[in-house]
Each structure stands twice: as C-alpha cells, then as structure tokens.
Amino acid sequence: MVVSSGFALESSSCNFQSFSRISHVFPGPYRSFYPAIPTQIELEAAHSLVISVLEEEGPFEGILGFSQGAALVASVLLEHTKKYGSRVALPVKCAIFICGSLPFMIPDGSHIGSNIDPHVQSIRLELDKEKESGPSVSVVSIVLDDENEGLNNIEDKLATISIHDECADVKLDPMKRAHPGMCASRISIPTAHIIGGRKDQYFEESKALAELGDERKGIKIFTHGMGHVIPRGEQLKRAMADTITWAVNRVRFQV
Rg (Cα) of the chain, in Å, rounded? Predict the structure, then answer.
C-alpha cells in the first residue's frame, strides 16, 4: 500500500493550494491529508482513511509513504502500538518512509511529543488577543504556507490562517509530533528510510523519524542528498530499490 500526498494507490483527501512553481509543471488538483498543522479531527479523519483501506483492501505486506504520507503512516502505526501494545500485531509487516517528517499524534494528555513550531504558537497568542478585543470565533484550522515560513510580522502570519467560526464547538488542542526522545512507543516492524539530506528542509525530522523505528526489528537508512524528492538517476534509483528490498527481505527471510 502506498500513501502519499497527491499521488498513490491511496492518495490524500483534501484539496490545497500548491506552491506557484509547481503549478507551472502540473495543473493539479493538489491534495493533502490535512493542513500543515492539523486539528485533532483532521488527523483522526486521515487515520480513518488509511485504516479503512488497510482493513477493507488488505492484507498488505508493507506500506510506503512519501512526505506527509510518511508522517501519516508513522502516526497510524505508533497510535496502533499505543492502543494495543504487543497484543495486536500491526496491520503491515514493514514500512518504507521517503522524506518523512515527524508524525503528529492524537492528543491524549501524555505529552509524548514536541510542541508545534514556535511561530505557530505566537500566532495563537495573537489570535487570543484578537478574540478578547473582537468578535468571538474559534480557530479550528491553521494552514501555513511552507514557502512563507520566514514571515516576520504577525499580519502576514495571520493571513495564512483559516478561521472557521461555523465550527465554534470544536476545540483546538495543541498538536504535537512524536519525538524519539519523548515517545516511548516504537514502530515494531522493519522500517526503511530514504532521506533527502541537507537539501531537504525536513532532514532532521527524517533522521528523528528513523529513530522511532525498533532496532530489534531492523532500521535501514539511505540518504541520497537530492532534497525533498524521490531520487532519480540510475545509481540513486538502484540504491533506493536496494533499501526497499532490504525491508521486504527482512520480513520474508528474517535477515
């Protein structure tokens, strides 16, 4: 089973606006599983989509995710482990992550992860001030444009936020990402990680995602250095294929 934003056997379910440079190459539509910073409801809906495919169209030997799809796969597998422990086997036997970021986790009060980015927290503080002095609204979705990650003033930041007061009964809890230094759960199947290197803005998160694997089951990492892309070129494709084959053989032959 393949899980990827915009391309895959099971593709994402939400429309989103692309970077301007992408629209010149491919006209869309562009899809994502959830906004850059999801609400609990949005994350749970994405989980339900993946789990329903696993249950209805499986069994699957493995699962592969790219970018946001990789983070979502990791989140689904870690939540399964949190819920069932070793009592119920994971729904797949191996997982391949390509350019993955750290997974968001469904809030449960356990403080297992790291907080969302500080600039998002500052946006929330400013919104609280606005709410005190202006109309009563409830923020249920924050959509940040990755191209504008370096925005310096709160007006520009606020412009990137979607506020839906028709959902005023929905509570927005701080979303956290699982971090290997704070999360006790591990993905207890062989995991292969294809990482974009320092050209990828998620390089550090991709490395941390690999640490959420279970060393006893096996973790293999291939860093290609080409950035946030699926590597091209004969040598790189062969190395990527070897990394994926390792995960498959780890399941089939226990090697």
Answer: 19
Sign of the Cα torsion 133, 136, 142, 148 reads negative
Q: How does strand 104-105 pair with strand 94-98?
A: unpaired
- What is the reported pTM? 0.71
209's enclosing H/E stretch is helix 203-211
Give the pLDDT mean for 16-41: 75
Nearest alpha carbon to residue 68 among 100, 93, 41:
100
What does residue 81 show for φ and ψ, rounded to 5 degrees? -65, -40
Q: Helices 203-211 and 68-84: crossing angle, nearest 10°?
A: 30
Q: Which residues lie closer than 8 Å to 175 by C-beta, 6 or more apart? A: 37, 38, 39, 40, 43, 104, 105, 107, 116
